[in-house]
TrEMBL record:
InterPro entries documented for this protein: HAD-like_hydrolase_sf, HAD-like_sf, HAD_2, HAD_sf, PGP-like_dom2
Designated name of the protein: HAD family hydrolase
UniProt entry keywords in alphabetical sequence: Hydrolase
GO cellular component entries: cytosol
Transmembrane portions of the chain: none
Gene3D superfamilies linked: HAD superfamily/HAD-like, Putative phosphatase, domain 2
GO terms for MF: hydrolase activity; protein tyrosine kinase activity
Length: 221
């Protein structure tokens, strides 16, 4: 019998491979900020562009592009113009084995939730697009336009509202935000290598796995 009852899934990099849509939006947003404000912000390398996937976009812009909150807000506006307007939202795919993992966990009566830094409206649309909505009890994510929430904030909200037993709750994610957030709120975590993170980010993970099947094996043992 599993020690866990409540499972929190990250979205980008854990459920969906969303690299193309997000990176295209980031490139568009930086180009528009340069164009509108007559700036010359250097386009990040491919490696750095991938780091925009997962954490809040304004935090990534401030870290990798320009430490200017007003510009970061403008960047996000143009990013969303491309991401939402050019179908970037659905320019993604499920990782191999993820649909079956989620369905099988649901069928075994685990309580499943999404915990993402992506705006809630977008997260809901993606979950519905892939017909996963019937498996999840709730989606925890920032409301579009509200103050930026990092993964720790999202997890705190989920734990507070759901009244989870922390010893029976686990976070599944691919970035340091997921793993460190889980550590801060005192729940276990599974780091997945197939997403956008690397082993350096997984130092504090309870488990590290290579694929969806390995996630299932951990959760049902």
């Amino acid at each position: 019998m599993s020690k866990y009852e409540n499972i929190l899934f990250d979205l980008d990099g854990t459920i969906t491979d969303s690299a193309n849509g997000i990176i295209n939006g980031v490139i568009y947003g930086i180009k528009k900020v340069n164009e509108i404000y007559n700036l010359n912000i250097e386009m990040p390398s491919k490696e750095i562009l991938r780091k925009f996937i997962g954490p809040p976009l304004d935090i990534s812009f401030l870290k990798y592009c320009r430490n200017d909150e007003n510009l970061a807000n403008e960047f996000i506006k143009y990013y969303r113009e491309d991401y939402n307007g050019n179908n970037g939202l659905f320019n993604c795919k499920l990782y191999e084995g993820i649909f079956d993992l989620i369905k099988n966990l649901h069928d075994k009566n685990f309580n499943l939730f999404v915990a993402t830094a992506k705006p809630k409206e977008s997260a809901i649309r993606i979950i519905e697009y892939f017909n996963l909505n019937t498996f999840f009890k709730n989606i925890y994510a920032p409301i579009l336009g509200e103050k930026t929430k990092n993964k720790t904030d999202v997890l705190i909200e989920a734990l507070s509202k759901e009244k989870f037993d922390k010893s029976k709750t686990i976070m599944i994610g691919d970035r340091i935000d997921d793993i460190e957030g889980a550590k801060i709120v005192s729940i276990d975590s599974i780091a997945v290598r197939y997403g956008f993170g690397n082993d350096e980010e997984f130092e504090n993970a309870t488990y590290i796995v290579d694929d969806a099947k390995s996630v299932f094996d951990i959760l049902i043992k």
